[in-house]
Amino acid sequence: MEEFVTLTYNGQEIKLPVVIGTEGEKAIDISTLRQDTGFITLDPGYANTGSCLSAITYMDGEKGILRYRGIPVEQLAAHATFKETAYLLINGKLPNREQLTHFSVMLNDNSLVHEDLRTFFQSFPRASHPMGILSAMVNALRSFYPELGSTEEEINITMTRLLAKVRTMAAMSYKISRGHKVIYPRPDMTYCENFLNMMFDTPVKPYEINRAAVNALRVFWILHADHEQNCSTSAVRVVGSARVNLYAAISSGIAALWGPLHGGANQAVIEMLSTIQADGGDPIKAIEKAKDKNDPFRLMGFGHRVYKTYDPRAKIMKKMCDELLETMQIDDPLLDIAKELEEVARKDSYFIDHNLYPNIDFYSGIVLRAVGIPTNMFTVMFAIGRLPGWIAQWKESMDDPKWKICRPRQVYTGNQEYEFVPIHARI
Ligand code: CMC
Asked: What is the end-to-end Cα distance of the chain in Å, rounded?
């Protein structure tokens, strides 16, 4: 039976339909609100606004649940490859052997990048942030690969091309930034091995595959693969809604992810932990600073718009961090500081009352450090992981029969109409 919510204003009543998702999530459909009443809704930061119906990712922030296409992220992190996870997100179901082989072949076939892109890379100033470079480079792919096509097979090629090339471009930017020879992708390696090889292989010292590092990267990318309608994914959907090409939509997602409140938090956490270390290693000062409402500082890697309990991804990341450091016999003092900081924060009434728990970025930087990734590349690593999610969300929005260009409204609070005054008469 269809449910409704009744809205009453000045004696006038209107019935708004209730929409219920497969996990019982409820929404009020206000799509005819303005037309029926003249009202719009106001929701800064869209904290209560559902922008779409989506069958990709389910999150329950109160219970700490995260599932891709129905499969718990814990199971994927334990058993799946990143390639399978990407296929699952984009195509809606796990691939069979034949589909996975076809997908792997397509990824390999598209993993090289146009040699002219190198010139483009080399033109950026030395200290450029890799996220700015990646966003620009992904947008530039449209010029290097103009054939986008409109059939399912052609769109699949564009999506696979992006998945394959972003990984190559990320490693290439690292090599160029160090003035080293670029290492090309190898078809005999897995997605994760290939990336590490392109990053760390050199003509004088061949890269030896480190199983623990490969596994850490696999889990890291799976945990980042999608997170429903977050800031960067919404950017991809909003920009994509103007029917720009996929590269431009993804480039906007990369730009949004760069922010320290979003994906840039993994770099910011390491910088924060290093500052605490340089300051003597006492976490109390950082906690007090984060609680001070006159200080803009926030405890990086803590808090989340949706999770009001421990981020399920952070749980896996923390465990993996411990195991990885032990296997690789690394003693990272930043891990000790992070654990101490977490312990103090979780006993502090401010953090308890505000439901502030560590999020995925709190321990992920320490994992990436152990793998050998430089700090300024951390958010690029997040972007590579998030790519399948962005692509899946873009595809879903393009296939939506109720598609509309995204165009929110506002409540205007500026001047009312007044006359233009010529410059000689202005005071
Ligand atoms: N440190 C101190 N106080 C905090 C923090 C924090 N990290 N996060 C939230 N708060 C406080 C905030 O000051 C506010 O307090 P009050 O209600 O007393 O004014 C309250 O908690 C609610 O905060 P909010 O800013 O309204 O919450 P939000 O949902 O808009 O922000 C957030 C979510 C993730 C941007 C925020 O928690 C934050 O800035 N965290 C630090 C940055 C970070 O770790 N980002 C990574 C997020 S996970 C990766 C991803 O997927 O993007």
From this structure: 65
Where do you find CATH 1.10.580.10 in the chain?
Answer: 73-400
Q: Which atom of ligand 1 is nearest to the CA of 262?
A: 52
At the top level of CATH, the class of 4-60 is mainly beta
Q: Is 361 a pocket residue for ligand 1 (Cβ < 6 Å)?
A: yes
Q: Whose CA is nearest to atom 27 of ligand 1?
A: 305
* Rounded-to-integer distance, Cα 16 and Cα 19, Å: 10
Q: Which residues contact 121 (CB under 8 A, 6 or more apart)?
A: 133, 137, 172, 173, 176
* CATH 2.20.28.60 location in the chain: 4-60
Residue 137 in tokens = 């480079």
- Asked if residue 114 has pLDDT above 90, the reply is no
Any atom of ligand 1 within 6 Å of the Cβ of 195: no
Question: What DSSP string runs through 275-339?
Answer: HHHHTTS-SHHHHHHHH-TTS----TTB--SS-SS--HHHHHHHHHHHHHHHHTT---HHHHHHH
- Identify the pLDDT of residue 219: 98
Catalytic center residues = 304, 361
pTM score, whole prediction: 0.95
Closest residue to atom 51 of ligand 1, CA basis? 262
Confidence grade of residue 213 (pLDDT, cut at 50, 70, 90): very high
Q: What is the CATH number of domain 73-400?
A: 1.10.580.10
Is-contact 252 241, C-beta < 8 A? no
Q: pLDDT digits over 144-194, tens only?
A: 888 877 888 888 889 999 999 999 999 988 888 888 888 999 999 999 999
User: Does residue 360 line the site of ligand 1, with CB under 6 A?
Assistant: yes
Query: 342: Cβ below 6 Å to ligand 1?
Result: no
CA nearest 336: which of 264, 260, 276?
276
pLDDT of residue 145: 86
- Would you place residue 81 in the very low, low, confident or very high pLDDT band (cuts 50, 70, 90)? very high
Contacts of residue 188, defined as CB under 8 A and 6 or more positions apart, other chains included, come to none
CA of residue 369 to ligand 1 center, whole Å: 24
- The answer, yes or no, to whether any atom of ligand 1 lies below 6 A from the CB of 262, is yes
Closest residue CA from atom 41 of ligand 1:
300
Q: pLDDT per residue over 316-335, tens digit each?
A: 999 999 999 999 999 999 99
8 A C-beta contact, residue 146 and residue 129: no
Determine the distance separating the centroid of ligand 1 and the alpha carbon of 299, expressed in angstroms.
Answer: 8
